[in-house]
Amino acid sequence: MNNRFFSSMALRNIKSNKQLYIPYLLSSTSIITMFFLMVSLMTNKFVQERSATLPYLFMIGVVVIGLFSVIFVLYTNSFLIKRRKKEIGLYGILGLEKKHVAKILFFETLFSSLLSIVAGLLAGLLFGRLVFMLLNFMLRMPNDIAYSTSLLSSGATAALFVLIFGITYLYNVSQFTFANPIKLLKGKQEGEKEPKGSLILFILALFFLGWGYWISLTIPDPLAAIEQFFLAVLLVIIGTYLLFISGSIFILKALKNNKRIYYRPGAFISISGMLYRMKQNAVGLANICILASMVIIAVSTTVTIYLGSEETLENQFPYEHNVNLFGDMDNIEEMNTRFFEVQDEVIALTEESGLDVAEMESYRSESLFGNLADGRFVFEQSSVGADFPVLMMAIPLEDFNGMTGENYTLEDDEALFYHSTNTYTKGELAVGNKSYKLTEIENEFSADMALSESIAMVVPDVSHLLDIRDDFMEEFPESDYITIDAEIGWDAEGEADQKESLVNRLNSEYNGDSGSFSLYQSRENQREEWYSINGGFLFLGIFLGLLFTIGTLLITYFKQVSEGFDDRGKFQIMQKVGLDEEMIKDSTRSQLVWMFLLPIVIATIHVSFAYPIVRKLLMIFGVTNDMTWLMTFIAVVITFAAIYWMIYRVTSRVYYGIVK
């Protein structure tokens, strides 16, 4: 017998089992499409240009979807091979050797995997382009966002799924290599042993979930959140699978042991049915739960970023007009002179444009990196290192009083002190060769100080900034990153055309100033670009939400089909002994409601515990309003639950059709 014979048998087997293979091929194609789209987004030019954080987050998404793909394909394949055990056992009875059956299964796997991979890649290209076109049309972005992919993305996708389908082939071969043909002939008719609830697995589930939740709840700052996010996600995914596999069995056995609940016709059928299939059922529920969590986080965070655009602008540009001066520490007198001159200049330019200065704030500052140890700020040469150093900003008292309207006074060895983490409790701090007695204050500085561990010190006068610089240069003579910088911000009242004229004059005057390097930024000029960037995040969030929702639909559909085939024979027997159709629906409704509610409830709990780490990540994008995220989160959960309810209604009809 040659390979042509075995390949033709494999094709005939696929055709004759099309009722099983069509859902399997659709599901495999869909998961390949999902992974391919995630890889394409990670390398997409638009994603690369939006933020340095986005490619990293998409890389996490690729890893998560990759792990999910392995579990999902093995899960769907196990259902397929279980339904075909009788057929495979018949081959042995008819005289085919095990190596011949292995060849048939090889060609079946080859044909189905090639079809799935090619269809998945083509669907990814088509779906990606169509959805990008649709979202560009719906969101009316200033510039269309292009969907792009590469041979690398296609190759990585094909390589992963060739490996996954190779694993399924080895699993399928193992199912009959070590089995007796007579036993295989019984196939699915052979009763399953009641699954045992593992206390160890249940404890491990709680441990992994608790660990992931603890990381989220105790994350110190946004930069640490970027580092820890992947670990937290991975731990929660592992904990979710273990919880559904072990925890659900504990609950069902508790219900079974409750005689008042269990010994009723509907409860008896549904509880015993779910208990005996819980291993396979649990994986499907866990898959849905993970996808639901992804939908809620992806959509709620990106919608929050978009809705928080004005807040972000306010945080980034507290005033309508902003001039930054970057000075030379060796020329501190010139910097001071320039600082006061520019304030007079911008007031004059504003009034010449027919506008009134409504409010103005200006201050000089010095920034450097280091670490707090034994009552001393230990200098670091740069911000690059294994650990994130502490950022210190020093401001002279005169400027701080002008910023806040306060009237603080300081002795030469005193300083006002703010620490973003409130963990430094000593009353003194040595910086360089000088020690300061500290008076604690609230954050009157920048919202960016919350992005990483930061401290702010208000020193008696500007000469202390020069002293700190000299002490630093004594330790690191080759470093030149420390300068005294200045920020001047003000609002102007008047007509729109007058404001536009002022913006043009300030642009020409201070962008590229020859005296000392300066930069002018207008909040209004930044608004369009900022909305475009945040609109891009919204675009990606909706795209990912749609992608994961479609994945949820297909997994739910396959789950209902597989359970329907498992239940059909049992309910046909029950009908013969007098169980009517209405009783069948009543007894299965509780199973379907369980499947519907449990993933949504657990996903909502996951996202609720993820709030602290997500909040830290949102701070990187300038969003600090908790209420915006909370309201968006509630709206997304309700919307997704409604969509999932519709999916449940449609797929439950498929289940009832198969059972009947």
UniProtKB/TrEMBL annotation:
Family recorded in the similarity comment: Belongs to the ABC-4 integral membrane protein family.
Residue stretches spanning the membrane: 21-42, 54-76, 105-135, 155-178, 199-217, 229-252, 284-307, 537-558, 592-614, 626-647
Localisation: Cell membrane
Annotated keywords: Cell membrane, Membrane, Transmembrane, Transmembrane helix, Transport
Keyword Cell membrane found: yes
Domain of life: Bacteria
Protein topology in the membrane: Multi-pass membrane protein
Record domain ABC3 transporter permease C-terminal: where: 60-175
InterPro entries named in the record: ABC-4_Integral_Memb_Prot (IPR052536), ABC3_permease_C (IPR003838), ABC_permease_BceB-typ (IPR027022)
Name of the protein described by the UniProt record: FtsX-like permease family protein
Chief place where the protein resides: membrane
Organism: Metaplanococcus flavidus
A Pfam family reported for this protein in Swiss-Prot or TrEMBL: FtsX
Tagged with keyword Magnesium: no
